[in-house]
Amino acid sequence: KRLYFDTHALVCLLEENGFTTQQSEVIVSALVKIMNTNLDMIYKDMVTKVQQEIALQQVMSHIGGVKKDMIILEKSEFSALRSENEKIKLELQQIKKQVTDEITKVRADNKLNLNLEKSRVKELVTSYRKSIFVLTYSITYSFFKMHAQQDRALTQTDRKIDTEVADLKTMLESHKLDNIKYLAGSVFTCLTVALGFYRLWI
């Protein structure tokens, strides 16, 4: 501990102002004790440079340990995320395969149904043609048989033929419209499945 004033000069100053030598020394001794006590109180709250360096090294060591722990944790978290991504990727591939299989199945079913509908329409057309042929033959036979009522029979026959033909055309148009509706529904189903797969993929 150092005193930053001259104690002897203070004693002399006190003597010059009327104090005896003994009184001056007692006063200076009391001041020194008070200053030492104050310094002791101050030093209790202070650290030395060496202690400060040791504390700094301890703090840096703790920081280094925390950094290592954070690196290890980050690596483990990254591994977990990568594993989760691989799992999600496999699930997406399975979903993609299922959607592809469903689309293929729907297309095959639609194609089969369309072919069956075409065959049915062809059979109906053939049947109607046969009916028309039989009807025409019957009308022709009646025409030669009923020569006296030729004009009236011909007119009635023409009307009947027109009606049958109109009915056949109406029926064919109805079948065409049903086929178009069926085909449009199939295409819309395929588009819906494809759109669902596209949203799942994104």
UniProtKB/TrEMBL annotation:
One of its GO terms (biological process) is positive regulation of mitochondrial calcium ion concentration. The chain crosses the membrane at residues 182-201. Keywords: Coiled coil, Membrane, Mitochondrion, Transmembrane, Transmembrane helix. Pfam families: CCDC90-like (PF07798). GO terms for cellular component: mitochondrial inner membrane. Belongs to the CCDC90 family. This is MCUR1 regulator. The lineage of its organism: Eukaryota, Metazoa, Chordata, Craniata, Vertebrata. The gene is Mcur1.
